[in-house]
Amino acid sequence: DGGITQSPKYLFRKEGQNVTLSCEQNLNHDAMYWYRQDPGQGLRLIYYSQIVNDFQKGDIAEGYSVSREKKESFPLTVTSAQKNPTAFYLCATSAGEQFFGPGTRLTVL
Amino acid sequence: SQQGEEDPQALSIQEGENATMNCSYKTSINNLQWYRQNSGRGLVHLILIRSNEREKHSGRLRVTLDTSKKSSSLLITASRAADTASYFCATLVRGGTSYGKLTFGQGTILTVHP
Q1: Residue contact A48–B105, C-beta within 8 A
Q2: Is B41's CB within 8 Å of A88's CB?
Q3: Considering only CB atoms, which chain A residues are within 8 Å of B44?
Q4: What are B45-75's pLDDT values in tens digits?
Q5: Would the CB atoms of A88 and B98 count as touching at under 8 Å?
Q6: Dihedral, B27, B31, B37, B43 alpha carbons, nearest 10
Q7: B108, exposed or middle or buried, with CB in 10 Å at 0-12, 13-18, 19+?
Q8: Which of A67, A81, B33, B36 could anchor a disulfide with A63, C-beta 3.0 to 4.6 Å?
Q9: Closest-approach residue (CA) in chain A for B93
C-alpha cells in the first residue's frame, strides 16, 4: 500500500447524498485509476487519468465523477445518481505495473 | 463480459503443496499481470509477463503465457499458510494511450491449510 493513501477506510452515506473519496500518492506517477470491487468479484474500472487536468471514463463511469487538478490527488465523487454505490473502492497509480491503495469501503444506508 | 476469466474460482490445499491458477482472455494483449489481495485490502502486484515472453519466475512463483491459446497460469510452489489470499490476473491492452487499461478477472480464492 506504500505511497498511496485513501481516506476514509470506512464510509457510511445516506441515500441521496453525494460523497467524495480521497486518493493521494507520493510516487510521482502520472497515471491514476479508480476501481470498484463487489463481493467475490474482480475489479471494474470507473475512471482513469493519464495526466493532470485530463481523465477518461472507464467501464462503469455512470454515477461517478472525478477531478485531477494536482498530480498527487485524484478524488472520486459518488453521486446520488449511482444506483448501487455500496462497494469497496480502490485507487491505483501506474508506471507499468499498478500500485494500489488500501481501499475505502462505502456503505449506503 | 470480463477480459480475464480465472479457473478455479476457489482452491484449497495443504501447506507444502503446489497451487496452480489459470487465466484465459479474449483479445490481444500487451502484457498480463498477476496480483494478490488479502481480505479487505488493496491489491499487491506479483509478476508481469509481456506478450513476447512465455515463462517468468519470481521466487516461488512461476507464470506461463500462451498467446496462441490466450491463456496464462500462475504456479505457487511449496505453498504456505501465508499464501492464503485472492489472486487476480489482469490484462493490459494499449490503444492510443501510453499506459493503457488493465482488465481484471474475477479471481481465484486460495486457501492453504497448515
Answers
A1: no
A2: no
A3: 100
A4: 999 999 999 999 999 999 999 999 999 999 9
A5: no
A6: -110
A7: buried
A8: A81
A9: A96
